[in-house]
UniProtKB/TrEMBL annotation:
GO molecular function, one term: 3 iron, 4 sulfur cluster binding
Parent-protein start and end of this portion: 47 to 311 of 361
Assigned protein family: Belongs to the [NiFe]/[NiFeSe] hydrogenase small subunit family.
GO cellular component labels: [Ni-Fe] hydrogenase complex; ferredoxin hydrogenase complex; plasma membrane
Residues that hold [3Fe-4S] cluster according to the record: 229, 248, 251
One GO BP annotation of this record: anaerobic respiration
List of residues binding [4Fe-4S] cluster 2: 186, 189, 214, 220
Location(s) in or outside the cell: Cell membrane
Highest rank taxon of the organism: Bacteria
Record protein name field: Uptake hydrogenase small subunit
Organism: Chlorobium limicola
Binding site for [4Fe-4S] cluster 1: 16, 19, 114, 148
Length: 265
């Protein structure tokens, strides 16, 4: 309770803001708890009340005052073609802003499939040269929190860990926090018994769909996707894609956007 909040600069590059949408819906810890007790969200192009020069000044002030102590959270990624001209924020390329802000950060959190792996803006033929954070910043500890978006409690869990212990959580070989990405969707899926019994949905309007059988034959990527959706679920534990009757499309795996098709017959 007496610990000062960790300053956070949250940048937005090429992205859709779904990570922010997810983050603000965290239920444990709640977003209020995160904002009021754990982090000081000093700069965020989407959520900050200030804008323009005022806000850019805040970013520079935080970088100076908390040199080596602030967290850089990155939502989206940078265009690297033509000097990054395809993503301009605050009068400069996002590529430059990312490099500048990363230079004195204690650590970087790469939110979502965009910042971790590239996502749809990186899809073949990748006209803007969209590149994930780890391909641009090489000299800082980076935690990848993939998903499109990541689960809100996974996001706040990573922040809570850094605030509590002053370090990034234990990571796997792909830079993901092990605590949330160490099992496949398939390992904990409540439809697994149907998979094991060979009972599959074969059409979205068949009787097996109504009975909730396994979605593997509909292209479910659960057997090869590492994420916590089948364990902690979404919206405070309400449901997840498979719970809503849709196959997992592997949104937390590298290159899922180019590995299609999402549907198989
Ligand atoms: Fe596995 Fe997908 Fe079937 Fe669930 S629905 S058991 S994740 S293949
Ligand atoms: Fe994404 Fe699959 Fe979870 S599509 S949200 S990783 S169930």
């Amino acid at each position: 309770e007496t610990k000062p909040r960790t300053p956070v600069i949250w940048l937005h590059g090429l992205e859709c803001t779904c990570c922010s949408e997810s983050f603000i819906r965290s239920s444990h810890p709640t977003i209020e708890d995160i904002i009021f007790n754990m982090i000081s969200l000093d700069y965020d192009d989407v959520l900050s009340a200030a804008a323009g020069h005022q806000l850019e000044d805040v970013r520079k002030k935080i970088m100076q005052e908390y040199k080596g102590k602030y967290i850089l959270a990155v939502e989206g990624n940078a265009s690297t073609k033509d000097d990054g001209v395809y993503c301009m924020v605050g009068g400069d390329s996002f590529l430059n802003t990312l490099k500048e802000t990363a230079a004195d950060a204690a650590a970087i959190i790469a939110w979502g499939a965009c910042a971790s792996y590239g996502c749809v803006q990186n899809a073949d033929p990748n006209p803007t040269g969209a590149a994930p954070v780890s391909e641009i910043i090489k000299d800082k500890p980076i935690v990848n929190v993939p998903g499109c978006p990541p689960i809100s409690e996974v996001m706040t869990g990573v922040v809570a860990h850094f605030h509590t212990f002053g370090t990034l959580p234990e990571l796997d070989r792909m830079g993901r926090p092990k605590a949330f990405y160490n099992t496949r969707i398939h390992d904990k899926c409540y439809r697994r018994a149907f998979y094991d019994a060979g009972m599959f949905v074969r059409s979205f309007d068949d009787e097996a769909t109504r009975k909730g059988w396994c979605l593997y034959k509909m292209g479910c990527k659960g057997p090869t996707t590492y994420n916590s959706c089948s364990k902690i679920q979404w919206n405070g534990g309400v449901s997840f894609p498979i719970g809503s009757g849709h196959p997992c499309i592997g949104c937390s795996e590298p290159n899922f956007w180019d590995k299609g098709p999402f549907y198989e017959r």
